[in-house]
From TrEMBL:
The keyword Oxidoreductase applies. It comes from Nocardia macrotermitis. The keyword Glycoprotein does not apply. GO terms for molecular function: oxidoreductase activity. This is Short chain dehydrogenase.
Length: 136
């Protein structure tokens, strides 16, 4: 999922997720595990990165909330990187490693909410989208 203010960051994550889905299918039978880690906010250096504070006035209406969160959130993120690392290692050591591992309550909540939103939108447009097949 993505939101205003994180377009470029999310684009790279989406590309890696697609690659990882295909890679998991390609190498799973060889005993190679693929894990997509989907972290929430963790106390890393990301929010302290000055490049996320670039301001373009035309985007104020859409990215100000994100800019404020990032600008004021460094050091207050709920996620503990050491616990995240332990969870990743546990997932990789498991007999059935998941393809996706959301980390942190904020990540789980956001992903579930996003998934429900996508499902609702697809259901609202299902008749239209299914009507695009050839009439045989």
């Amino acid at each position: 999922m993505s939101f205003a203010g994180f377009a470029a960051y999310s684009a790279t994550k989406f590309a890696l997720e697609g690659l990882s889905e295909a890679l998991a299918d390609e190498v799973g039978s060889l005993g190679i595990k693929v894990l997509v880690v989907e972290p929430g906010a963790f106390r890393t250096g990301l929010f302290g990165n000055a490049s996320t504070r670039t301001r373009i006035a035309d985007y104020d209406a859409t990215v100000d909330a994100t800019r404020s969160m990032v600008g004021g959130g460094d050091g207050g993120q709920p996620g503990d990187p050491a616990k995240a690392a332990a969870a990743v290692l546990a997932a990789l050591a498991a007999e059935h490693t998941p393809l996706r591992l959301p980390l942190g309550s904020d990540a789980v909540d956001a992903i579930l909410q996003h998934t429900e939103s996508v499902r609702t939108e697809i259901e609202q447009w299902e008749h239209t989208t299914r009507a695009t097949t050839f009439d045989d």
